[in-house]
Specification:
This protein is α/β, with parallel strands linked by helices. The chain contains six helices and five strands. The chain has a five-stranded mixed beta sheet. Strand 2 and strand 3 form a beta hairpin. The termini are far apart. About 30% of the residues are buried.
Length: about 190
């Protein structure tokens, strides 16, 4: 099933916080510059002892969420580098399976570092999960009773909201991400030649 072609004024973005115990997700609806939460939740993987069964469940659930909500784009938190290589490997696999689910449904993927997501939501790259949840609740006007006890859910929502913020940045630089790239792409606009 393909996602419908999004209009310029309305988009649905899903965010995923990869995990091997709990995988958080959140979906936002963007209408112009107005953003509202559609849903958030957690894929609970604690009952699966086998890592490969967890990966299969991640693929099934992420595919199901995509088919239910038809997001236009997926934002996913990039794995952070830790000292435990085995944990990193498992987390990378979990992220890859979620990405494969999006690819199988032709949903474009955008990856953001954890610090970048925290910075976009709170203004601080070292913010706690609780601070991120609090800021999202304020920005998206989420009622207290709609908040979930799992911070993985708000982390997924944060990835979706971070992508909204990043997509709102002006494209006047011709899509350039650095001054050097801007100069290369805009030779005709650069003075002093």
């Amino acid at each position: 099933m393909l996602s419908p072609t999004p209009t310029a004024s309305e988009r649905n973005n899903i965010g995923i916080d990869p995990g091997t115990t709990n995988k958080g997700y959140g979906l936002i609806k963007v209408t112009g510059r107005k953003v509202e939460m559609v849903t958030m939740g957690v894929i609970d993987l604690r009952k699966y002892a086998d890592h490969y069964l967890k990966l299969g469940r991640i693929f099934e659930r992420v595919t199901g969420i995509i088919e239910s909500y038809l997001p236009d784009e997926l934002a996913i938190e990039a794995p952070f580098f830790g000292k435990n290589v085995q944990s990193m490997l498992k987390l990378g696999r979990a992220q890859g399976v979620a990405m494969a689910a999006a690819i199988s449904r032709q949903v474009p993927i955008h990856e953001y570092a954890p610090m970048q997501i925290k910075m976009a939501i709170t203004g601080q790259g070292a913010a706690s999960k609780e601070q991120v949840a609090y800021m999202l609740r304020q920005m998206l006007k989420i009622p207290e009773e709609a908040m979930l006890p799992w911070l993985d859910a708000t982390d997924g929502l944060a990835a979706a909201y971070c992508h909204f913020i990043e997509s709102q940045r002006p494209a006047s630089s011709g899509g350039a991400r650095s001054w050097k790239e801007f100069v290369r792409k805009n030779q005709d606009k650069v003075h002093g030649k």
